[in-house]
Design a protein that fits this description.
The structure is a single chain. By secondary structure, the protein is of the alpha/beta class. The protein has 6 helices and 9 strands. The protein has a single domain, classed as 3-Layer(aba) Sandwich (Rossmann fold). 35% of the residues lie in helices and 31% in strands. Strand 1, helix 3 and strand 2 form a beta-alpha-beta unit. Helix 1 packs parallel to helix 4. It holds the Pfam family Methyltransf_25. This is SAM-dependent methyltransferase.
Amino acid sequence: MDTATRTDSTIETYDRVADDFLRRRARTLDEKRWLDRMVGVAPSHAGRRRLLDLGCGTGLPIAAYLSERGLRITGVDAAPRMIALFQANLPHATAHHADMRSLALGEPFDAILAWDSYFHLTPDEQRKMFPIFRRHAAPGAALMFTTGPEAGEVWGDAAGEAVYHASLDPGEYRDLLARNQFKLLDFTAEDPACGGHSVWLARFTG
């Protein structure tokens, strides 16, 4: 399979396995500490803080938890069945069936999250996402995403089917953040307290 079709193949797989994925998805929320840190970084203002959840999946458990924390949720997913389940699980959230690679919502958000989604893009697609993050970031917005711990491409598993993963070198992520006016606050590779996730947290300074 050539590079250009790997991300599209993964989207099709998630669409096909969405219901099974929802049944299998752990609800223990090992991500809670990181999610709370992201909320703490996101700027406060008179209204509810606005979260852009890129690759939101079914919305459970992450978007549901952030909604309970008082954030106004906007979910984006390229898999039709995933976004349908998101709408069913979070009926008061805003849902967009859209591809993050070409996203242009025309509005800013106080927090941008791409948890276990951004790393399904090819290396070049990941590089091109940073201007998209920037265009959707309100002043002081938090940005959090997960990657692998080092540069490489692998095939993983989603509900028993193969899905593509890629990562850049951590130094390149640091450079991309800086060039797009994001200040790196933390990077933890293979966090043992979070299921081995490699997590990036930054603040928009533009």
